[in-house]
Structures are given as C-alpha cells and as structure tokens.
Amino acid sequence: MRPTTGWRRSIAALLVAAVAAAPALLALAALVLAWRAPDLALWPHLLEHVLPSAFVRTLALGVGVAAGTLVVGGGLAVLTTLCEFPLRRVLAVALVLPLAIPTYVLAFVYVGVFDYGGTIALVFRALTGEASALPSLRNLPGAIVVLTLALYPYVYLIARAALARQGGTLLEAARSQGLAPRAAFVRAVLPAIRPALVAGTSLAVMEALADFGAVAVLGVDTLSTAVYKTWYALGSLPGAAQLATLLLALVAVAVVAERGARRGAGYAARALKPAPRLSLAGTRAAAATAACALVVAAALLLPVAQLAWWGTRAQGVIALAAPIASTALVAGGAAVLVLATGAALVAAVRMMPGSRVAAALRELAGLGYAVPGTVLAVGVMLALIRVDAALALGGALASGLAGVWIALVARLQRMGTAPLDAALTQIKPSFRESARTQGLGRLAVARRVDWPLLKPALLASLLLVFVEAAKELPATLMLRPLGYDTLAVKIYNATSEGLWMEAALPALLLVALGLVPSAWLLRR
C-alpha cells in the first residue's frame, strides 16, 4: 500500500470516528459552553431554594441504593449460586426478570397500591379498620426502596456470573482447610468477587443518579428533576444546562470511585468444574426460598398483577395506536443509528490499530451511557439551537425528532460498540486465511466467515438499543415535538395526574417489550 493511500485511510477513519462520536461530544460541549454566560438572575434562587436540598437528596439516594442493591443483589447471587434449596432453579431465573420493568413504572405501581384506595390499603383497612398506619412511599426512603427493587438485578447478574466461574471451587477449597462455611466465604470467596460487586453496585448507583421518572412520581426532588424544572417551570434553558453540569460532575465522581475501588483487583478465573453447592435444610432452606420469593413477588409479580388489574378496569378505550407508532419510530430510528455509528466507530478503530485519537473518540462516544437523560437532553437542545441559528433553519432541528435521536444515540452508543467488539475478537485471522486458501474473494469471505459470527452481535445490539430507547423517558419527554407522545411519555403524563388505570396498558406493553432482552440474557 502506498504511503498516500495509508494517510487517506487514516484521515477517513478519523473523520468517521469523529462523526460517530459527534452526538455525545456536541451535547457535552454545549453544557460546558453554557457557563460562558451564567444566569445571574436565576442562580441566587437555585443556590438558596433548590441546589442544597436537591444535592443532599441525590447523594443520599445514591448511597441508599448502593447499600440496598449490594445487600439484595449480592445476597441473592450468593444464595442461588453457592447454595441448594427448594425452587432454587426457578427463583434464580425469576430474579432476573425485574429488569424488564422501568423504574417509573415500578414507582407508580407502588404509589398506587399504597394510596388510600389502593390494593394494599384496601386489604389493610379491611383487616384493621384503618389505613393511617401504612407507610408513605412519596419520600426519600420510598425512592430508595423502589429503586433498589428495580436495580438490584445489575448486582445480581454480575455477581452471579463471577460466583459461577469459581465461587464454589474457592468455597470448597476453603472448607477443606477446616473453615466454617461463613468464614470460608468471607476469607476466600468475597475477595474474589469484590470487583463484580463493585461493578454491579456502581451501575445501579449511576442509574439511580440519572433516574428522573421514578423520583418524579414519588415526589422526591433530586438534581435530575431540578434540571427539568429549571428548564420547564422556571423557563431557563441556560440555567438548566449549568445545573446539569453539576449532576454530570457527580456521576463522573461515581465513575472514578468505581474504577478506583476495582484497581488492583482481579476477577475470578474460570473453574475447571463446578463445585457442589452447599445444601440447606430445615429452617435455613425455608428462609432462603422465602427470601428469594419475597423479592420476586415485590419486584415482579405484584407490579405485573396490579398493572393487569388496572388494565382490565380502565374506563373507555385508551388510544394506544399513536403512542405505539411513535415509540416504534423513535426506538427503531435510534437502534439503526446506534448500530450504524457503532459499526463505524469499531471499523475506524480497527483501521488504525494503536491510534490514541481513534480510541479516545470511541471512549468519548460511549460516555453518554453514564450521563443522565435530563443532562443529555439539555445539552442536545442547546447544541441544536445554535446549529439552527447558524444555518438559519428556523428551529427545524430543535423542534423535530432529530434532537430525540441524537440524545438517544449519545446515551446508548456503547450498546452499539461493545457487542461488535466482542464478536470481532472471536474472528481469528486464521479463519479468513483458511477461507482465502480455498479461493474465496474478500466479499465471499465476509459473507461466509464474518457475517455468521457478527450477525448474532448485530441483532443483539439492535434489540437491546430498541428496548432501551423505547423505555427512555427524560430525553424523549424533554426533546420530542409538541404532542408527539411515546408509550413512556404517555405513562408519565397519566401518572403525573394520578391516572393509574390509564397508565396501566402502556406500562404493560413496555414491560412485555422489556422481557425480550431479559429472556435473551437468560439464554446467554
């Protein structure tokens, strides 16, 4: 290859990577540039009435969810992986399924069942004659409980994978040294799975910090809801952008803390054969089964049953054709764009092996996954307003679906690159060389060797992005064209007015949609 051709390929690869990373870069750059002109009239109000309480609640929410998901997710992973008890196989699968329920759906279900006319309140009042003793979930502890039930599967899945690799073998080796089961777990197994516990807990905490729908339903004002209210209630987009950078900084601290906690720790290696589980009997077996069943009932069975009950009692016909079509267009467009930009990023990096610029662009493009949807929405809107003004488009970009798609691409870009990277590592050079020795050209090699190995990763990425984009609430709510309601927005609008029955059918559709990637995870 001639030198000029190599330079052209390198420049082309960098341009492709830059374009693919542009959604996240534009949003984040717009947030930083918003500080060039602080809203001096608004900030005294924010500093006195909004920021202190919102910051404290956000921090407390993150700490509470970290503790809750670590105890619930980590404890259940240990029980279902290292112990044997009745119904273990069924419960181990069922404990993954709450991933299908969006946090804002779980929040409005629990608000509804604990309200005066709710299911639990009615049963409690029938048994005791009063309902005043029922706890309220419209507060910070309620938000911690609801988000723990929604997010514990992150810790459960990652910790269970680590335990399945070598947890039983380590426990058996420690027991052979004369240690009791509890001491063997603390000394041998826990240090080995600590990176997995930290990784899962950190994911749950970042989701909690970024959450908007659940805390809005529960009436808990955090930095995420403060960004939304500053834009819509106070009418200051620059002020919302400046406030969003504070939330972004808090998420960045969580990311840095997570990496620091995992530094120097290694994951357990794959065991040659699984060790036998510790058989529980009597009271311990019953307690283990009851603990798992209670979490499944609280995080999955009760919400789904309540949604189905509300759905059957809904008055009149709930128009869902338009929200379904809007959801399909928004989520489908986002999935295609994420897949295209993800493939472009992966190809650009592989065309320039060792290039720090290309690798940095890929990392920057994936940063949006850790950025709250409210933050991305504000950054994207600021960027589109500037582009509209520069190109004299009359607000066409800022008022259309472009903003929604750009925000979703920035938020979900990592889902477009990670599966492809994993699939490409499975394609060894010897596969292609063997095919070429049989006289196959480049297109034939790509069709017969590359495509069969890449197709599952592409389909998985397309499916995951579609489902996550369909469930995404804040970015869609804040950037959609006027009156363009997806299923998530319809749920938010109904629950903001306390119309639980009207929100039930759209919520059931989203839950059913979320079960698809959950089933795929279980098969994997």
Brief synopsis:
The protein is 77% helix and 1% strand. By secondary structure, the chain is mainly α.
User: CATH topology of the largest domain, anyone?
Assistant: MetI-like fold
Alpha-beta content class: mainly alpha
Shape: globular
Arrangement of strands in the largest sheet = 1-2
CATH class of the largest domain: Mainly Alpha
C-alpha-based Rg, rounded:
25 Å
Query: How many structurally independent domains?
Result: 2
Task: Indicate the low-confidence ranges by residue numbers.
Answer: 266-273
Q: Give the CA-CA distance, first to last residue.
A: 42 Å
The biggest sheet amounts to: 2 strands, parallel
Number of strands: 2
Percent of residues in beta strands: under 5%
Architecture of the largest domain, according to CATH? Orthogonal Bundle
Give the proportion of residues in helices: over 70%
Helix count, DSSP H or I runs of 4 or more residues: 20
